[in-house]
Amino acid sequence: MASQMKDVEIPEKALKELLLSKHADYIGAYGTKKDDYEYVMTEYLRMNGIYWGLTAMDLMNQLDRMNKEEVIGFIKQCQHESGGIACSVGHDPHLLCTLSAIQILTLYDAQDAVNTEKVIEWVRSLQQDNGCFYGDKWGEVDTRFSFCAVACLSLLGKLDCINIDKAVEFVVSCMNYDGGFGCRPGSETHAGQVYCCVGMLAITGCLHYIDADLLGWWLCERQLPSGGLNGRPEKLPDVCYSWWVLASLKIIDRLHWIDKDSLIAFILASQDDETGGFADRPGDMVDPFHTLFGLCGLSLLGNKSVKAINPVFCMPEETMQRIGIQLDLL
Amino acid sequence: MIVKLLFFYFYSDEYDVIPVTEPVHNKSPLVVIEHKLGVELWCIPILYQYAYDKLLSWRARDGTEKFLEPGEVCNLCRAVLLVNPECYTVWNIRKECVENGDLTVDEDLKLGELILTKHPKSPETFIHRRWLLQRLLNKSLLSSNDSNHSNSSVESSELLVGVDGISVNFLPTNQNTCSNNHILPKQIDRNLHRTVHHEFDICLRAAEHYACNYNAWSHRIWLIQAAFNSAVQVLLSEFRTTVTWFTQHVSDHCGFHYRQFLLKSLINQSQAVSCKFHVDVNDLLNQEFDKTTDLIGTYPGHEALWYHRKFVLHQIIDEIKTKKDQLRETLSKDNGIDLKRSRVESERQQLLEKELNLVSNKELLSCDKRECELANRYIVWIKRMLSL
């Protein structure tokens, strides 16, 4: 007799092969129907969505199928006077979409399409006395924003314009007894926040603050019998955690603590062979977010038919090499 | 017209979508029964598109919408957010309306509360609430500031720790002997007091509607920190009032984490806890440990319970270590220190070994496969602690 456990069962007929060309077609066609209600409803994450789609295409070596000029033109319209970049035209600037915008421009080797001086100044202005970062002028604090700020500045080659020591001090203050991190000091450990904090510490060269064994343990306890990873105890597995958890493990050199084969099986089973794309778990509806992170997870697990992904920036390794960023991981 | 109607039906306390996919001629798509608002499915995309386009067009000051009455701006925002509360730009427009005086903080808190009945984990709704509440807290701080006291968040927290809001058992028993001189109640802003305490109810409702609601619980933690400065009275009161919740939600890791946060915050102020309230944190830890092991016995196979057990044991061990460090400091010249130090070491050792035996003899032999896995993991952790 076994108690009910939150997990999924991978069906016998689950997909076992990577359907790359279907995924490329899915992303390629996404967003062409701009009047779709769903498309309009998700405008608040448009910049993030473009970053997910383009990065996925680049991983599959299909970036040239996307309309570079249109994307760059769109980003130009999204930069505000303050220097910050919005999620879409007419929306307000925010660190989350500013990072996505800079990631896209870096991918396209077109950072100068925006006023980078103003971006840097705007990001710098969001840091507070205790080292934390606001997400925008309205003042929300979250360790995700610490990651966005340092990743953005690092890509622009201006990490030194903020108080790095204080920024690190704040992130470390969010470390919990289980070795993980939450959104603010005292908050629950969450795999997404862990990725942001570990990534932030990697960029600032401060991974020594992390207890790799302790955190590694918590991270690999995210793996469920189905092979999938969840983000916190007693949650269902989700393909996006194949990224947040796996990238964190890779950065702290504990990737080998995960059962690779069963995770690969879970990710592949989450594909949709009719529409292309990946869903959060087998049988659900696909979206670009999970498509990117499914591909990223497979890349980290050694799949050679996609490009190598950088575990800190979630961008192709070759892009990081091109711009000359090399970080010391554990 | 629908947008205006929405205004009238704003005083509902809950809303949701009615799966009517085709409009019926001349019939309103809004239904209100006993303060519950229903919106027919077919009208939602139309409503949304209309309100959203109009609002953004006005904001960009292009096209036909160069001027809108503040009231209409608020209505349009409400229409958009009831359908799509993640649209952060529209929440920002509401913030600007509050700053201009076209909207009160209370009205906006009400909208957010309504939205949470349908979207209980909406991140942007909680983020907006924190901005509103912080605004109230800052205002209260300014108005309470008299010439004798400096600005500090401790001041505002003392305003809120009102006598009537907290369970009587946790009132300070001795107001004069301890270092904190801010115990005596000051001018309490009753509205703010009520608002902040109501926020706890909102968090709980959201937690009930969506299991493991990270956003609701982290908002509750924020409230304790920002509004109450983690005041011991509030921590103890929360610790007492949430105990039933967690025994009824044994899978909810967020709920357990909240208790861990309360315990940790109490431990960090253990002197004040024992001095002012005559409560020993070690007693709280031991009671929590017993409650948790009881629940594990009743509900096998719950990972959240095992994580909680691990946390509580870890804190108990930590307290022993703290005792050891204190011993070292106070008895540095005492020849008996080695004896005392090793006694503390063996106390830690004994506790871990006792727990190891207990789990090995009980949970590890369970017929529940999942329970055995969890017990095994726990045992691995204890063995690691023993080797440290």
TrEMBL record, chain A:
PANTHER family documented for this protein: GERANYLGERANYL TRANSFERASE TYPE BETA SUBUNIT (PTHR11774), GERANYLGERANYL TRANSFERASE TYPE-2 SUBUNIT BETA (PTHR11774:SF11)
InterPro entries in UniProt: PGGT1B-like (IPR045089), Prenyltrans (IPR001330), Ptb1 (IPR026873), Terpenoid_cyclase/PrenylTrfase (IPR008930)
Family statement drawn from the similarity comment of this UniProt entry: Belongs to the protein prenyltransferase subunit beta family.
Domain called Prenyltransferase alpha-alpha toroid: residue spans: 19-315
Keyword entries, A-Z: Metal-binding, Phosphoprotein, Prenyltransferase, Repeat, Transferase, Zinc
Purpose: Catalyzes the transfer of a geranylgeranyl moiety from geranylgeranyl diphosphate to both cysteines of Rab proteins with the C-terminal sequence -XXCC, -XCXC and -CCXX, such as RAB1A, RAB3A, RAB5A and RAB7A.
Identification of the protein by name: Geranylgeranyl transferase type-2 subunit beta
Root EC class: transferase
Cofactor: Zn(2+)
GO molecular function: metal ion binding; Rab geranylgeranyltransferase activity
Reactions listed under catalytic activity: geranylgeranyl diphosphate + L-cysteinyl-[protein] = S-geranylgeranyl-L-cysteinyl-[protein] + diphosphate
Pfam families according to UniProt: Prenyltrans
GO cellular component: Rab-protein geranylgeranyltransferase complex
Assembly: Heterotrimer composed of RABGGTA, RABGGTB and CHM; within this trimer, RABGGTA and RABGGTB form the catalytic component B, while CHM (component A) mediates peptide substrate binding. The Rab GGTase dimer (RGGT) interacts with CHM (component A) prior to Rab protein binding; the association is stabilized by geranylgeranyl pyrophosphate (GGpp). The CHM:RGGT:Rab complex is destabilized by GGpp. Interaction of RABGGTB with prenylated PTP4A2 precludes its association with RABGGTA and inhibits enzyme activity. Interacts with CHODL.
Cofactor binding note from Swiss-Prot or TrEMBL: Binds 1 zinc ion per subunit.
EC nos: 2.5.1.60
Automatic annotation (TrEMBL), chain B:
Pfam families attached to this UniProt entry: PPTA
Gene3D superfamilies: Protein prenylyltransferase (1.25.40.120)
GO annotations of cellular component type: cytoplasm
Record keywords: Prenyltransferase, Repeat, Transferase
Entry GO MF terms: protein prenyltransferase activity
InterPro entries for the chain: Prenyl_trans_a
SUPFAM superfamilies from the UniProt entry: Protein prenylyltransferase (SSF48439)
Family from the record: Belongs to the protein prenyltransferase subunit alpha family.
This protein's name: Protein prenyltransferase alpha subunit repeat-containing protein 1
Taxonomic lineage of the native organism: Eukaryota, Metazoa, Spiralia, Lophotrochozoa, Mollusca
